[in-house]
Amino acid sequence: MESIQLTINGKQLAGHRGQTILEVAGENNIDIPHLCYHPRISKTGACRICLVRVNGTMLKTACTEPVIADMDVVTEDAEISQIRTGLLEMLLSEGCHNCLYCEWNGECELQRLCQKYDVQEPSGVFKNRERTVDTESSNGLRRNENRCILCGRCVKACGEIQMQGVWNFTGRGSSTTLTSDMFAKLGDSSCVMCGTCVQLCPTGALSFQTVLGRGQAWDLKKETSVCIYCGVGCQIDFYTNKEGQLVKAIGNENGPNEGHLCVKGRFGFDFVQSDKRLTKPLIKKNGKFEEASWDEALDLVSSKLTEIKSKSGPDSIMAFSSAKCTNEENYLMQKFMRAVIGTNNVDHCARL
Amino acid sequence: MTNSIREIPLSEAFLVIGSNTTENHPVIGSMIKREVIRNKKKLVVVDPRRIELAKYADVFLQIKPGTNIAILNGLAHVILKEKLYNAEYVSGRCEGFEELKKTLEKYTPEHVAAICGLDDPSLIAKAARILAEAKPMALYYCMGITQFKSGVNGVKCCANLQMLLGNIGIAGGGVNPLRGQSNVQGACDMGALNAVYPAYQPVASEDNKAKFREAWKTALDLSVKPGLTIVEALNGAIAGDVKALYVLGENPVMSDPNQHHVIEAMEKLDFVVVQDIMMTETAQYADVVFPGYAFLEKEGTVSNTERRVQLMHRVVEPAGDSREDWLILTQLANRMGVPWEYGSAREIFDEIRKVTPSYAGITYERLEKELIQWPCPNEGHPGTQYLHREKFSRGLGLMSAIEYTPPAEDVDPEYPVILTTGRILEHFHTGTMSRNSRILEKTVNENFVEINPNEASNYNIKDGELVSVSTRRGSIRIKARVTDRPKPNVAFIPFHFAEAAANKLTIDALDPTCKIPEYKVCACKIEKINM
Amino acid sequence: MLILRDLEVQSGKNMLDIQTLRGVAEEMNIPESDVAGFVGFYTMFNTKPRAKFLIRVCKSGPCHVMGSTTIFDAIQKHLGIGIGEGTKDGMFFLEKCECLGVCSVAPAMMINYDIHGNLTPKRIVSILNSYKKKKPSLMEDCGKEVEGKTCVINEPRQTKRLLENIGVVDPLRIDSYIGKGGYESLKKSLAMDPSKIIDTVKDSGLRGRGGAGFPAGMKWSFVGKGPVQKYVICNADEGEPGTFKDRILMEENPHLLIEGMAICGFAIDASLGYIYVRGEYRRSIERLQVAIDQARKKGILGKNILGSKFSFDVIIKEGGGAYVCGEETSLINSMEGKRGYPRFKPPFPGGAGFNNLPSNVNNVETLMSVPLIIEKGAGWYKSVGQPNCSGTKLYCLSGKLNRTGMVELPMGATLKEIINVYGKGLPKGRKFKFAQVGGSAGGILGKDLMDLPLDIDQPMKQGVTLGSGVVLVCDEGTCSVDFLLQILSFFEHESCGQCVPCRVGTAHLHHLARKFASRTAVPGDIDLMVEKATVMKKASLCALGQSPIMPITTMLKYFRKEFLQHCDPKHKCPQCDRSLSRYYAGGGH
Known about the structure:
By secondary structure, chain A is of the alpha+beta class. In chain A, 24% of the residues lie in helices and 20% in strands. Chain B is an alpha/beta fold.
């Protein structure tokens, strides 16, 4: 790929043909504020927050402007700050943004920028237009369009990643709103609840229904694991709250899923903390299960297996291993059957 | 998969056969949809049901369940006849071509259309041309190919087609089975199979036996006799040969065909141990139940459908007094006189590397920062994005001449409708996890049978009405969903729901080679329930 | 667009119900939300029932100045309905709309697709009565007063080039056009080297007549090369209030446009041309279609045109009521069946336009100049006009003049000449207050700029723009606040809503203008208005959002005092009162 030399904020940097200013800046840890841009979707260039100065004169959106040789980019100056502040003020007055009641508080990209540019509460001169609030119709997703900045990430998340095309804009100009399908409620729409629109939403306009626990953004702990369902092996960042409860699942972009999830990966994790979980070994006595200690249960199994093995031979014992268990556990199960019991009677549900 | 998920954008065309990808592997389904819709790639879909992908297909072949081999042979027939195959690839890299050619002769579009129940034979030729012209073309399949008594042959036919077209061993091509469980690939790799040690090393080999005796430092004489498969073991239990069963995280009462038969086996066994996270339908038959860890409580590795080995981290504290599955097995082994000393999953993985050549180069450290797909023979090896790059693992690619054989159970006047089973988007397998997840269960909480408007009018059934579906093995009551998704004379039932268990109905006919049950086709009857 | 228009006519209620639209989505195998998004964008469509006949009364600048509020009054009186209301018998439904492109006969309205001008309260009654027996149809049935040729000012002092054959050739007969030497330039071009054609156009100094004034030959030379499909696109989405020149040209001489497009197609190696005509121009659409069909029959369009190796055809695409689609990338999105959102540039249409393939977009007037240039040469073309703005320009005169209509003059005519010679001055007793030049996106010219040559470059230096050639003259009876309110309500209505500064900014500006009109503003609102418009100017994605600063600052330059007066709640302004009470009655924007 053809290398291109350019300057951003006085630093000599290299990009390559086809990259935008924002992409090159990002690779070099230069933060250019943006809202409609997201690396997983096509470029929009609509929020205008990422305007930067090119060659001392022109203002260009960094998310769409391709880098060219010897370009001189300045990402922040007095005029740019003023424009960004003006745009953020417009966005705040267009919607109804009260972080106190917002589940995205602390993770909101709009909030972060408003703090960065010290944007004050709107004066009230301009009234906001009431838009759709629907927090109930869908089992998985909540919509509060009064917090929407119409950046279009959800439209593209659904149209370019999930390929379901549930979201689009309708209306025009200041009357623009979102629509799911054809003016349907989200719960009645063709939404498959993959949650990608929520994952990409920069504000709290779209959020998840509570799965198990809730918690404030700054209290949540994140850990990456692999989805337990099908064989795609999606990597998921799971968030837990202070009490250790699972809160939400966000697709990890380094996995084979490239950040995407389906409804099961997104919402199908609370069984782990279900009260139906088995928590104690059980031994059936007189047709009824009774709780037992580990020693008791392990002793019983080992003596029974030893007895059956000596009486009926190792081939009278069978083990079903599990496609839900780890490599390590499957390895140990087959080793147990082969090297402890002495049979090859081990199989799992590969065929089911 | 011979190839990788991230190669999907490289494919110019897709053949999706026997895979309802957007529901069963939704993330891959979306990736394929993206290529087809946005990037105008070609798509041929072969399925008995009008699945979502059919909507975007250039050609959709709605075949009768159980006729995959006929349609695949039909496609290959056209490709041969119109000389659309990659002659250089076939002569240089494959063997068995002449025999295959002879077998394919009779699979004309007309002959195949008759077997598959297709009205328009010309569609077969059209599909074949699309698949032959776009290079590379990737074939994706799932249980709609394998869950037949001719399952292995179906897979071989998929391979035949891709070898003819020279699509194996190139990026964006391949024969790509979509694995249905998070670690079904790994469980196979680890030798949780009746006939092989880790990395598919046959147990019947004396060399392998010696190797593992040495590696495992065991005094026990390892058996060279292949063991039983699941369905064979259940038959063995009924026959009285199998006395004890240890079930680790499976639910055969729900997942195995012919539920009645499975329950009979469970009841016959002298001793049953179940290690699971919930009181499953199977655990009800146990003598001892061990509470294991759920996935978010575990550390360890899993291997996905593209052979990518990935690390799982502990996210939450374990429930109650449950224990890690490997620890339970270790403690049991210790009690049975074998001094295993594993302190963590990582220690077990270090042993796996030593006996599993394809995993030898993989370490936890590397997995934390690298994307690694086996085979990865040493620590300097980057892993393998796609298989059979310059030559097939066995040398020459083996083309197999395969004849179509009908399914075990044909329809008859008493059981006139073909029943096929599968999964839906919102649920998974036997429901142990998904049905205990609030939002998923709230979204879909009851079973249904999809029937074509044709059957609906024949049996005077309205959408949403309760019907009875019966086979020679059992009968269930279930809500009817009238839709043009299934072909006329075909009904579909998901198998996630214990209260109307599809596997009460399915047949336990097996593939002779790999013993996979024929879940995808049996004969049933549908009756209106008069309240 | 045409399918939807057909369905709407078929509905008999001027509506597209959800069920019908779902059917469209399924038939086209596209997401329902795409159809909802599309229908929601174009104001001509509605998913709610309206009536058998939909009355749209124009309230844009020229009509407003000429008294459109009295038209609403007359309709209210006769039918008893206000804006957004329908008669009980389901016959009529009233809406306000923006420019219909018949500004010389303002005020005007459109009933379904029939346009009527020179409205008076009396005329309205007779027009409405004539509809009681009519059946809705897509075929236009406009009043005689809007006929293209009657909208041309009959004044011999013009330099008639584009107008030479207007009223001379029969637009419905290709032979008539051929008889006047038509398609000779195309024949000549087909024998030329394509690069020579581009050179000739470059040499002529022809600049885009849509408003931006980009050199046409240069634009052609930027179209991507190589063996891919390329397109010639004619921008006939004439929506700038006060502009009606392209309509006259298309109605009266459609073959000249086809000829210009074919020459352009040959020059840039494009075998397909599209004309994107605004949906309101039914007569233009019908006449162009007749012309295309006749040209195809004659072998002038189609395979190997005129026996050459070059193939070329023309297809008409229709707009749906969106000013922003006059922006070339919005127009392309609209042609692709999408919401008319402008695209960010680069890529420019010349590299990746329609269907992401190289496309050249030119205005009607621009393309129609091409056959003349090829026929008579670049030197001839340059022989009139200004050094950097050669040729003639079509000026559209409207407002308070004794004579309104279109004239063709060498580039750089002054306001004084236009008003006095061609407009025959203001009506007796009326005094000039200001002229709006360039339409809503243009600026306000006071008496001091009477001698400014109105070409492309010189007005820029005075903070105004020639744009598409609008000259709307206002007398002293015009309230500057009321006038600016019309402009700013227009921008809010027409903003596509994609980019933040324009979507929110146009709403804020409109709100501020209403504060002045209702005399609830404070003096600081003047600065607030300028501040908002400045952010918009700097940050907006396309020209629409960058424009409002010009009318605001130029208006304030002359009439800041009037704005300050409007800050006083006791200040009397009947004009503002009328606008507020008439236009905002039915909710609306």
